[in-house]
Amino acid sequence: MKITVLGCGGSAGVPMLGGAEGALTGLWGNCDPRNSKNRRTRSSIVIEGDAPYIPASAQNEGEGGFRLLIDSGPDFRSQMLDQGLSRVDAVLFTHPHSDHTSGLDELRSVNRVLNAALPLYARQDVLDELKQRFGYAFTPWKGPGFFRPVFDEHLVTAEDTISFPGFDVRLFEQRHGKITTLGLRMGALAYCTDVETLSEEALDVLHGVDTWLVDCFQYNEHPAHGWLERVLSWRERIGARRTILTHMGPEMDYDTLCRELPEDVEPAFDGMVINT
């Protein structure tokens, strides 16, 4: 299985808008703007199975296994182009916040590649909010062509296991401030974006995971996101062999983290590829 980190930044990215104008404009916080690994777009990943997969109706054969997109934020188009990807085969939304959903309209380009509706997986509350924001994208499609996104809707709950060609995804519930989000475990790998509290049930699902990609927005306590001390405590509890920090804010400088973190913990960066 392969994971491509499309983005590993918080809701405002790094750098955030603001500050003095010029070549290195933006608010970088503690992040060194000279290090390209500190430039972070909004958090999203693509999970790719090992078995070769060719969509039946695709306009071209493409390459690689079945690809599941997790969230489509406002940077989706540029993220896919930057990583040389043109196709995903399904999308799963972890929660309805804009930094994870506002690139939904860009998925019409994926429809054109697939020449078909894109399977969309979400909880009922998330789907309801998507339909409120992007109502035009969920009206009956009459074709031909894809002038807007077209979806094949699949409702999920936090207790589901979803089977895709080449891998299964076990869902579980996480607390993210005032709402809940979906965490994912795919065999030896797990992904927990936008989480500040993990229940005993969630920790049990994560127990024994080999590689864990987890929300860690900053060093100090945060009301809606993981912070370093808590993430390190979770990692001890579940026994993860490798922990990779994502959804990082401008406080989290890449080189500083590499120097200070334990050997089995590391920061993600946009374009990082994780093979398991």
UniProtKB/TrEMBL annotation:
Ranges for domain Metallo-beta-lactamase come to 41-247
Protein's UniProt keywords contain Hydrolase? yes
Question: Is Hydrolase one of the keywords?
Answer: yes
Q: Which domain of life is it from?
A: Bacteria
* Entry keyword set: Hydrolase
UniProt xrefs under SMART domains: Lactamase_B
* InterPro entries (alphabetical): Metallo-B-lactamas (IPR001279), RibonucZ/Hydroxyglut_hydro (IPR036866)
Q: Any idea which GO molecular function terms this record carries?
A: hydrolase activity
CDD domains noted in UniProt: metallo-hydrolase-like_MBL-fold (cd16279)
Kindly give the PANTHER family that the UniProt entry links to this protein: HYDROLASE C777.06C-RELATED (PTHR42663:SF6), HYDROLASE C777.06C-RELATED-RELATED (PTHR42663)
Name of the protein in its database record: MBL fold metallo-hydrolase
